[in-house]
Design goal:
The protein has an 8-stranded mixed barrel with strand order 1-2-4-5-6-7-8-9, surrounded by 6 helices. With 291 residues, the protein is of the alpha/beta class. 51% of the residues lie in helices and 18% in strands. It contains 12 helices and 9 strands. α6 links the parallel β5 and β6. The structure holds ligand C2E and magnesium ion (3 copies). The site of ligand C2E has 25 residues, from β2, α3 and β6. This is Diguanylate cyclase (GGDEF)-like protein. Keywords: Coiled coil.
């Protein structure tokens, strides 16, 4: 490494690039292998009722259980899967496994809905809603117990096409949730144009309630607007009791966040749901009772 300063800077730069592109290359190859191998599986995060803190539904969150690298969070592989055109097969396998796992929880009355994230790209795929309806028929889950979470980024591409797919799902009784609300561009437009059942207020806003006066006022106004429109509100990323107290007083319907429960493997979530139904175990209702 006894080079002139300029030269060594360049070679280090080249090396960085090569490493980044090699890492990227191996991630792609790994992902192509991992999806059919069933390494990407559903974890679940409980959502609680704001009024009494009881767990009432779950969101499905994909986790990649890599044989060498351990558990990988979706931020590291969902965008890559989208770019490679692998998000369809990925979501499909996570969806099927999640329904198989959680359909009994619905049947037993432990939860009222299972929320699955759907990539904006899929929403523009002509085969998407047909496929999802077919896959749903293969499971024991009633359409009315499925919530599809969408983000509004797709609106920048083709609202009318996305709307056709969404309306087809809604007609079957599938609930549509607008995810990460408060972070994008076309939120209000989407809200008015689509059959939205649930609004999920993003954690970037929820993190500020009770702390930042302007955010608190804005979130309270959002709760009131949703109520007036007959839309359910879920607060995402609730991490402390002060937020929960504020949100409950503001009329929030449901809450989700580390304060109540982190995403966990199916066996753990099932145990939490059963313990709570049996009247003990889970402490989310005590957190709320204390509030
Ligand atoms: P999302 O749908 O908005 O999911 C909520 C994210 O917030 C999850 O991150 C969850 O673990 C995290 N979270 C929940 N409560 C808290 C909290 O109190 N504090 C903080 N800091 N974070 C909290 P995760 O699991 O890493 O997922 C990230 C994103 O990846 C999801 O955001 C969703 O957009 C996407 N995603 C996850 N699974 C799938 C999937 O199967 N298919 C598709 N297409 N996208 C998925
Ligand atoms: Mg989501
Ligand atoms: Mg979200
Ligand atoms: Mg998100």
């Amino acid at each position: 490494r006894a080079k002139a300063a300029g030269g060594s800077r360049w070679s280090a730069f080249d090396e960085d690039l090569r490493c980044a592109s090699e890492a990227r290359h191996s991630l792609e190859a790994e992902l192509r292998r991992a999806i059919p191998a069933g390494e990407i599986t559903p974890w679940f995060q409980p959502v609680v009722n704001a009024a009494d803190g009881r767990m009432v539904s779950v969101e499905v969150l994909a986790r990649w259980n890599h044989p060498e690298r351990g558990m990988i969070a979706p931020g590291a592989f969902i965008p890559v899967a989208e770019e490679l055109g692998l998000i369809g097969p990925l979501d499909s396998s996570v969806f099927q496994a999640a329904c198989r796992r959680a359909a009994p929880w619905v049947a037993e009355g432990l939860i009222d809905t299972i929320a699955c994230n759907v990539s904006p790209r899929e929403l523009l795929d002509p085969a998407f809603s047909r496929e999802l309806i077919r896959r749903l028929a293969d499971t024991d889950l009633p359409a009315t117990a499925l919530t599809v979470e969408i983000t509004e980024t797709f609106l920048l591409q083709d609202l009318s096409l996305a709307r056709r797919h969404i309306e087809r799902l809604a007609a079957l009784g599938v609930r549509i949730a607008l995810d990460d609300f408060g972070t994008g561009y076309s939120n209000l437009h989407a809200l008015l144009q689509l059959p939205i059942h649930t609004l999920k207020v993003d954690q970037s806003l929820i993190g500020g309630v009770g702390r930042d006066n302007r955010i608190s006022k804005l979130v309270r106004a959002m709760m009131n607007a949703a109520k007036a429109l007959g839309i359910r509100i879920i607060a995402e990323g609730v991490e402390d009791e002060a937020q929960a107290i504020f949100l409950r007083a503001a009329g929030c319907d449901r809450m989700q966040g580390f304060l109540f429960a982190r995403p966990a493997p199916p066996e753990e979530v099932e145990q939490m749901l059963r313990d709570e139904a049996a009247g003990g175990g889970a402490d989310t209702d005590r957190i709320i009772a204390a509030a």
